[in-house]
């Protein structure tokens, strides 16, 4: 079934070309930072970071290894909670490693603060954070990314890896989800 995205997306917030250009630009800064350091380990937080991680990694030219974690602070809705769980752990030992956590969006900050703390407790040499999107208005935990691509207003967005109820990750742009999509659902729950 083909989807009519006009029914779902209120407006495109960041188009494909802007995403591509900004990620390329940010990769230059990250390349400079890691140029003379030990081998980098990119840790992608599944599933939201996949598109960003792929696009970023294509533009990095330092030696790097990739691994993934599933960390969840969400139930099946749009609300975050402080109850952060590791649902799939890394295969890699991070001890002594230069780690860069790659995330789709920082919202309340629960997910990333817990993830960073976990990796530091495992004696990573350094743990930095890069996020595609930052929604600073919603922050509960005091955490800032080391690098970000775009700051966005307090609206629920989907696309380029980000989902609503596991859908719409495939959109090639970042779009604001129509409120009616999740408000209808909340009434049913
Ligand atoms: P935090 O723990 O509240 O910072 O939540 C981070 C996670 O919540 C992200 O990895 C996303 O999966 C999800 N999230 C937060 N805001 C949005 C949004 O606007 N759209 C889609 N997912 C979101
Ligand atoms: Mg998500």
| Element string (H = helix, E = strand) | EHEHEEEHEEEEH
Ligand names: inosinic acid, magnesium ion
What is the rounded distance between the termini? Answer: 26 Å
The proportion of strand residues reads: 25-35%
| Range of helix content | 25-40%
> So what's the overall shape?
globular
- Helical element count? 4
Key words describing this protein structure:
three-stranded antiparallel β-sheet; 9 strands; single chain; six-stranded mixed β-sheet; globular; binds inosinic acid; 189 residues; binds magnesium ion; 33% strand; 4 helices; alpha/beta
What would a concise description of this structure say?
By secondary structure, this protein is α/β, with parallel strands linked by helices. The chain has helices at residues 16-34, 50-58, 110-121, 179-188; strands at 9-14, 40-46, 64-74, 80-88, 98-106, 126-134, 147-151, 157-158, 174-177.
Word description of this protein:
- The protein is α/β, with parallel strands linked by helices and 189 residues long.
- The protein has helices at residues 16-34, 50-58, 110-121, 179-188, and strands at 9-14, 40-46, 64-74, 80-88, 98-106, 126-134, 147-151, 157-158, 174-177.
- The strands form two sheets. The chain has a six-stranded mixed beta sheet, sandwiched between helices. A three-stranded antiparallel beta sheet has the order 1-9-8.
- Helix 3 links the parallel strand 5 (98-106) and strand 6 (126-134).
- The protein is globular.
- It starts with 8 loop residues before the first strand and ends with a helix.
- The mean pLDDT is 93.
- It binds inosinic acid and magnesium ion.
- Inosinic acid binds at residues 45, 48, 73-74, 80, 103-111, 156-158, 162-163.
């Amino acid at each position: 079934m083909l989807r009519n995205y006009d029914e779902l997306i209120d407006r495109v917030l960041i188009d494909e070309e802007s995403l591509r250009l900004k990620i390329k630009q940010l990769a230059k800064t990250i390349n400079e930072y890691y140029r003379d350091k030990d081998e980098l380990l990119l840790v992608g937080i599944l599933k939201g970071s996949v598109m960003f991680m792929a696009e970023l990694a294509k533009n990095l030219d330092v030696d790097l290894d990739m691994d993934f974690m599933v960390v969840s602070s969400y139930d099946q809705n749009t609300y975050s909670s402080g109850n952060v769980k590791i649902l799939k752990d890394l295969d890699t030992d991070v001890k002594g490693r230069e780690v860069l956590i790659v995330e789709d969006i920082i919202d309340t900050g629960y997910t990333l603060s817990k993830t960073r703390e976990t990796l530091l407790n495992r004696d990573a040499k350094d743990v930095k954070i890069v996020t595609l999107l930052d929604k600073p208005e919603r922050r509960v935990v005091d955490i800032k990314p080391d690098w970000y691509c775009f700051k966005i207003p307090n609206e629920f967005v989907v696309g380029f890896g980000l989902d609503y109820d596991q859908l719409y990750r495939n959109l090639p742009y970042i779009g604001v989800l129509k409120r009616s999509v999740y408000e209808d659902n909340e009434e049913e729950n």
